[in-house]
Amino acid sequence: MSTISSQRFADTVLSDLVGNVQSFGDTVRTFLQRTGDTEILVPDMKLDFMSIDEPVPMEFFDKLGIRRLILNAFPGRRAITDHFLFEYNRARTGSPHWDDIKSEVLIEELEALFASCIVIQFTDWADKNTASDFWTGLLYDVIKPLPKKDFHFIFYLGDPTKRLVFETDEILDIVSEYATCGKVTTILYDNEADKLWEILNGWKVDAHQCAHDPKEAEERYLSIYKALQVDTLVILSGTHAWLISNGGQFEFRINGSGKCSRDHFDAGYQLGLLLRLDAPQCVALALAISGAADESAPSPKALLHYIRAWIAELKTNEIPFNIGH
Fold first, then answer.
1. What is the pTM of this model?
2. Is 229 left (phi over 0), alpha (psi -120 to 50) or beta?
3. Can you give the pLDDT at residue 172?
4. I need a labelling partner for 74 at 20 to 30 A (CA). Which of 3, 115, 196, 262 fits?
5. H or E segment to which residue 147 belongs
6. Which backbone phi and psi does 152 adopt, to 5 degrees?
7. ∠ CA 281-190-67, rounded to 5°
8. CA–CA distance, 305 with 156 (Å, rounded to integer)
9. DSSP assignments along 59-103, one per residue
10. Which fold has domain 2-324?
11. What is the pLDDT of residues 73-106, one digit of tens each?
């Protein structure tokens, strides 16, 4: 079970969340049935998923460094995957660069695809050697030229110590530049956030001191948020989730064992974006879906049961007020 610091704030967030899950029950059910899919259509379009032609192969998205696309239409496609994979494999001496494979045909096809996107989630940057180059190419050759400026971009940076310092500086610039075309969320695990802070500030985190002073962690996360220049920063750990956005700083307490499921957290956060929930509700929904899930995604009924139990828990536990502005 999970709790959010400040009972009054949590009651409001979770009560509103109950109302939204009830109002959008069919959308919630349809979307969660697609948890883990790489490419998904907006559920409330009432489209028959089974009638759609073959989706773009996973290999295509993997090479571009994309984990998931959420679309509001299914664009017609001609040669997007064949052309891309052919050019990518042809140029595979070493690590191909964006300039090695881009062409007028590919740009045209990618523009049709991304023009229909609402949410774009990228793979972990630190684990993808070509990520910075490909994401820069996508941004300047495909996304920026589009008239659409209401994208939602989600970035996981991963462990920055796997990359060189100048590469870390470079990706921060790239991520902040994506914010010119929509809203950007960056998600880090707490150990990744500590390593990023160390790189940005040039000295190591005092783990012993921080264990006794949670305020130190909050200050580090706020420093990272300012460096990223994005709309929303989410930090996940085994027991907490921190949210920093222009609406304030919020701490979510996560009780129970283990970290939340990555796939279910992502699905919940993306669903919150599609339902146009505010940032605290997006994180609360992500945690609730992850907490309510077993081997498969929860039903709306199971999700509502979890959120109501969460509210009940808040009423029987004294939670320290810990919200900053």
1. 0.89
2. left
3. 96
4. 262
5. none
6. -115, 120
7. 65
8. 30
9. HHHHHHTEEEEEESS----SSHHHHHHHHHHHT-SSS--HHHH--
10. UDP-N-acetylmuramoyl-L-alanine:D-glutamate ligase (3.40.1190)
11. 766 555 566 667 766 676 666 667 898 888 888 8
